[in-house]
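The records we work with from here on pair a chain with its fold. These numbers are not coordinates but entries in a learned vocabulary of local backbone shapes. To see the layout at work, look at the sequence and tokens printed below.
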Amino acid sequence: MPVAEGAVLNHVSRESVDIRRLAEFYKEIFGFDEVESPNFGFNVIWLKLGDSLFLHLIERLPETKLPEGPYSATSPVLDPSHLPRGHHLCLSVSNFDSFVQTLKERGIQTFQRSVPGRPIRQVFFFDPDGNGLEVASRD
């Protein structure tokens, strides 16, 4: 039995130096709709396609001179606290607490926080290849 029961894709996140240009591209080419996004303290645009596919476009820090890819967050080190602003794939699970506990038991370094103004909890971590992952609560 998998650790993350009922896992579903939540969103895909991409950094860009011009999130407005990128948003317009996705809206024009694929038909994404722009939806309201929380104030995280940095510029972000949320897009939605259909009933369940979200794309989060996050403004890249001007001083970041890292290439696109797994290490494009604010630091080239594998520190999950940098993932909220970097590239990551997010899944939502209904068993958030037990999922996080399993990560800890396996020695996986994590960073946790909640979405401002919403009852959603998040945990960020890396896969064995260094790709950023987020798991969000679905309670």
About this structure: The longest strand covers residues 8-16. The chain has a mean pLDDT of 84. Residues 52 and 97 are 23 Å apart (CA to CA). The domain at 8-61+73-137 is CATH 3.10.180.10 (2,3-Dihydroxybiphenyl 1,2-Dioxygenase; domain 1).
